[in-house]
Structures
1.
Amino acid sequence: MKMCTRNKKDITTEYLNSKKIDKELRQESSTLQPLKLLLLGSGECGKSTIFKQIISFQDEATKKEYTPPAEYVIKNIFLNILTATSTLVRVAPNYNIEFTEEENQKIQTVLNAFSELENLDQTIFTSISDNIKYLWNSKQIQSIYNDPNRIYQLNDSTEYLMSNIDRYSKPFKPTQNDYLRVRVKTTGIVEADFKIEAVPFKLVDVGGQKNQRRKWIHCFQDITSVLFVTSINDYDTVLEEDNATSRFTDSLELFREMVNSNWFVKSPFVLFFNKVDLFKEKIKRIPVSQHLKDFNGNDHSYEETSQFIKNKFHTTIKNSNKIVYHHFTCALDSHAIEVVFNSIQHSLLMNVAEVL
Amino acid sequence: MTKKDNNIKLKTSNSLPSSPNGATKIKKSNSSNLKKSSTSERLNGKLSNNSNIYNDDIQIEFTKDDVPFSKQTLNNLGLLLNNPTTRRIFIQFSEKEHSHNHVLFWQETKEYKEKFIEINQEQLSTQPEQQQTTTSTSSSTSSLQPSSQPQQQQPSSSSSQQNSTQQSIALITDNNNNNNNNNNNNNNNNNNNNNNNNNNNYNNNNNNNNNNNNNNNNNNNNNNNNNNNNNNNNNNNNNNNNNNNNINNNNNNTTTTTTTTTTSNKSSPAMPSITPNTLASDHAMSETPQHGSSPTSMTVELKNQKGDSSPGSNSTPRVKSINGANNINDDASSSSSSLSSKKENNNINNSSSPIQNRKITNRRSQFLSGNRVSRESTPDDNTDDEENEIAMMQKSNLKSCLYIFDKYLTPSSELEVNLDFKTFIEIKKKIDQNQITVNIFEKSQKEIQEVIANDSYFRYKSSTTFKYLLNCAEQFEKDNSLIPTSDEKPKLKSRKSKFFCM
């Protein structure tokens, strides 16, 4: 009898305990909505790269879930290289650049492969990689590539991919860097769920092209923080969408619209000035004042130019109480991004704690 | 596509040869599917136990109308998009992440190509173009259209018709001659070859269909006599049945033949005007793919490659089918029906291969012209009508073109796709210059397929939905043998639902 009662008692306390925990959990889960981070910005500014980076800081399961298989990365590397080559070759007449007969033959093999992208695989790429490499290193292509007056659209990672072409010409395993560098147009809205120290996060990536932006509204609800990415490097380029609008103006206007939007009244903004590495290189060649007319500082000073651009963005903010953090980043630099993300994470959790 | 894949497809198309209406509306998925699922059945037993499965929040449901798919279909984006079932589910999936506009665009450009009416004759100035269009006209007239076929034959070669079953070759040459005359184009020797093929197939079809569906034919044809082209509700099968009767007088209703004859006689004086009739019957044809209906039409899509790649098969089954036509009687044995459906596919493929199918643009104009044709058998002002027809066709092409442009390409549209700027400008230019061709969206479609393949398709592939579909495909391969037994039910029920539809 004694045993029985004790047992019974044990069970009941256990039962009560577990019930209590269950209840707490339920309460917690109902109060603890995932922290929703939204990546915004115009096309090709590096949203998806930051997305990839943030995913790569998470645990193995998350990484596995949101990282594409190797063959997908490989295919897109080939695709990027072929697209870049054909773009450069096709734009050549506009720069009054001609190729020799031999070079034209090589060009033809590349263009043939480009016209049959469905069949593109390692064997085909291997067969043309020498031609691509030759063309890329030819003085004609180099002069097109280095022409300060760029009238065509080219991925920023082209140079990286081209310099690694020997590695890609044989069957290879894509590195993390390859994966980060490869350019894929994001379509639609991509969400990733993960937990950092038991706090659920939801990271949302979107396509940045103008035609993708009206989809954004679908994910504007309950945003904890907006990670706005702009490519600081793009002060001299025009939009891929219409080949006319300045990317800088577009990004600035977009930021103005978003930062003052009613959707995000309570959400702090994190502003990424991305691609600083390219920017530092570019200001040596292309003076900022040439494209941003109201800049009258030192064209070659990184400090002055970057501060000027930063201020341009900050002056668009109408609400003076708005929290906007800014970071100068290179999305490829895993360590730097990790530091930035941790600080964002920290301040977000602080905010959440305050609310609670 | 694997053999297995084909087998599966054949089997489903077998199972429902007599229920064109019951098998409709693949794309009008949700409501109709839900309705159907209560009365009808899933593809096989196991699936039916799991009618509502939530994967990635997507409710996947199969009905008998769905086209089976294999793992290969799923793993190749091109095949996946071409299969209406997998495409439908893919659209559902991508809707969740708001990238479905690309898949929809892909689908609509595909439909655009199918619906596109190739405009023939005077307006086209250059010789090669003329030849091409003639090919399309003659091939489609001879192979697809019920009314235009007799139109070409009747004036000169009614006797050959009588013998057509035995001497299809003779008939073919007759056809070719007539085609030449009718089209005012005497130097299209190349086209003759095309016509040959088409006619061959056509005749095979007729033979088979006749035998399979004699009983049905009587009914259908009687219904259709008044308005030869009011096939709007009766698709492919009936359409062909009409043909059969027209050509093989010995077999069936002479009434039909005479009606059609009058129609065709009326319009034939104005020689280049195959248009009215062709057009009219085009409506009937276009019904099939538009409603995404009968299983045959779906297999058509899927078998394109097969039909095209094996031209030799055209001749062999022909002999068979001629024999079959003579030997097999009214009972529609499943084997011959499979033959016929197979050939229907070939037939359509062939006719569509010289130039993309000539098909009318929107449903409204289908109904419109359905009426018009019935009027046409009385008045004599063919030339006017013909010009109107051309204008109509151009208009409808333009309309469907603009429809896609407005919906997916205009910079402020809801569903704007992520298209390269250059491609967009190209299309816009063409539209501005009124150069509406069948290939106007070709490049953009390809580009969008790349976009899908590079982005959303990858995510789709790693989704649970996709894994579930892979299981389905696997299961389907295993349970393939089960299909014949479960066939019985679908047949009965689909007939029922056909009645409901009517």
Note: Chain A touches chain B at residues 65, 68, 72, 76, 79, 117-118, 184-191, 207, 209-212, 214-215, 218, 240-243 (CB under 8 Å).
2.
Amino acid sequence: MSDHDYRPKSKVGQWFNDRLPLLTLANHLTDYPTPKNLNYWWTFGGILTFCLITQIVTGLTLAMHYIAHADMAFESVEHIMRDVNYGWLIRYIHANGASMFFLAVYIHIFRSLFYGSYKSPREIIWILGIIIYLLMMAAAFMGYVLPWGQMSFWGATVITNLFSAIPLVGEGIVTWLWGGYSVDNPTLTRFFTLHYLIPFLILGLVVLHIWALHVPGNNNPVGIDIKKPSKDTVPFHPYIVIKDGFALLMFMIVFAFFVFYAPNILGHADNYIEANPMVTPAHIVPEWYLLPFYAILRSVPDKLLGVVAMLSAILILAVLPWLDTSKIRSAVFRPLYKQFYWILVADVLILGYVGAMPAEGLYLLIARVATAYYFLHFLVILPVLGFKEKTLPVPLSITEPVLGGSPNLAAARNKESTIE
Amino acid sequence: MSEKKTKRRDFLFTATTAVGAVGAAAVVWPMIDQMNPDASVKALASTEVDVSALTPGNTLTVLWRGKPVFIRRRTQEEIDEARAVKMEDLIHPEKDEDRAKNPEWLVMLGVCTHLGCVPLNDKGDYNGWFCPCHGSHYDTSGRIRKGPAPWNMEVPKYEFVNANTIKIG
Amino acid sequence: MKSLFKLFSIIIIIIASNSYSFAAEKAEYLKTDWSFKGLFGKFDRASLQRGYQVYTEVCASCHSMKYLSYRNLAEPGGPEFSEVQAKAIAASFEVTDGPNSDGEMFTRPGKLSDKFVMPYNNVKAAQAANGGAYPPDMSVLVKARGGGVDYIYSLLQGYEEAPSNVSLDDGVYYNKYMYGNKIRMAAPLSEGLVEYGDGTNATVEQMSKDVTTFLMWSAEPHLEARHQMGFKAIVYLIILTILVYFSMKKIWSRVESEV
């Protein structure tokens, strides 16, 4: 890397940098050569960083007013909403921020799936991302418990009971998680502690995620390796910074719409009823971002196997770099994979939809078919496709498709140089 | 690139940065203001105290806004002592007549103006209060006479609602 | 730019399909024009004040509103009673305070800082007085029901003779908007039940609308501030987005690539 050549201009800067090379780091980040053909799907990394920081800042301020006690949690949330200066604003940003965070992370993950960003040499980046995603789900779940409404309580009860599916030790683990014989005050206080901790773990993993990214550099829509720096790259600042900023602002407009005009639409009405261990709400569903996995859980008629299926659905992603046998990264040059990709997107959306519906009749049947297809995609289609698929010719440089308009056209003109 | 073009671009970048900075500043304010006293705290601004049982020479301590308030029903001796002090002997000159409108009643925040400890009653070199933290002596009017405290103990806004009730705040 | 457009259309489709599925769950509720809906929605002050009257004279005998204080009645964005009026309202309630210096609890007239007086001391007492059914606290009731204001508004007007195939136990009533149609609350409103100070005709429909407006405010006391700030925030974001867009075009014009 050329970073090592960097010398600060001022004497003081040199003195400081020789002892702690922060300026070298800053220089590396600003000059970092980035493929110039990155499209807007690539802006979600920056958007996710914004989401994480927003959640941490609003979360810290909420924690200054929130009381983690079964008797006072619900009241303290109402206190925040009514009396604390701008409390309603901060809480609505935090609550909707969780949804926006997941919206962005799903786009980020599906971008990676489309352009093959998880493939060699970027497997570690991908696995770190899956760990971050798992931690996000844990943080979101525990955060949802904190207002101590009906959905908080029953969500906590149902999710913690998943562990009771483990043979022999399951019941013991659940009791240990609860700190009692049901979800109660000890459960709430430990969930608050962990909810506070996890974002900082995520922050640390994000640093590793970016570090790992900066070793091979960004993938790009064409999916080929590029020399850096070269005429195919632009420095991160100002080119990518301003582009990420533009996309972030568009994202913030959607975010602001939810916060100011539909702050409760993504939540559930029952969570404005204080937790009551004697009455379960008629229709209990998790937050939208967990629905596909909830559908997989419910589609398996056996308790243990249902939990196993749900966990596998996430963990299977961790081994994806080895399940996908194709050497070509970008779906742009994989006509068959591209179709299966969109079928997978539809499959996950269907799973999300049936996850919100009652688990009976036709919905259950659809959920089972969609669950089966989900695993089929990763375990059968992807490995086979790598060997069978006839891919389109891949250009040698990204400059070519960029100059020639759409990558497909450029590729078509370049039929001879097929990469096998 | 012509000079004119450069100027316009510079203006665009300056405007974008400036507008962005204004927005960032606007976002910071709610995060700061949320730490200020909230609406429910502000609403508890006043408290009423029944002083009918208080006899001369005794002090009642009540809580107001989370701080102790001393309500002292002074003896004639104490009043005379407080009123006899010359202004030039005081660190923070204030007339007793101004501190206790009704000479029999002294109402003040029981908080040492040095670093916020609660002074002890009927102690110290001036027959008033003595702060055990760093040795500030107050007289029978609650004025600082000796020690590190810079000011007299503060007299809050209060009024007699009737002969037996004081409303503080 | 093309992929960005694609992205946003996908987001909009997701949101639209979401709200569609929400809409599909709802029964056909009665509709009315709520002044607090929309980009600039504000509460109708007169309706809020009338709604408060309906609440205190009718609902408050069974339903608590434990998160509200009398001071809220005078705060901006609410019914906006004058400070004097709000003090008088507060003073008309007996509030239990204490313990005093003898260790006894005592009652005194309410102050602005007091919470709304509760009709029952606890849930058990409320259940005992209402045949086992707990009249829910109404502070956030609108947000705690799937149909929101339309549901409450309809429910109050939804009492009917039970169809012949439905049998009702004692103390259970038929309401066509209630989940399962059976409700433990008797029809709370009847023509002319309250006498409005401003001369408005107290029809059941009018009272339902007023009290529902009041409940919307009690659940979302900062709704007006939220709408106002939201409009400013979004206008600001659009302006900044446009500025950043042109800055981006300028910067990227230095390299041969499209943004």
Note: Chain B touches chain A at residues 30-31, 33-36, 38-41 (CB under 8 Å).
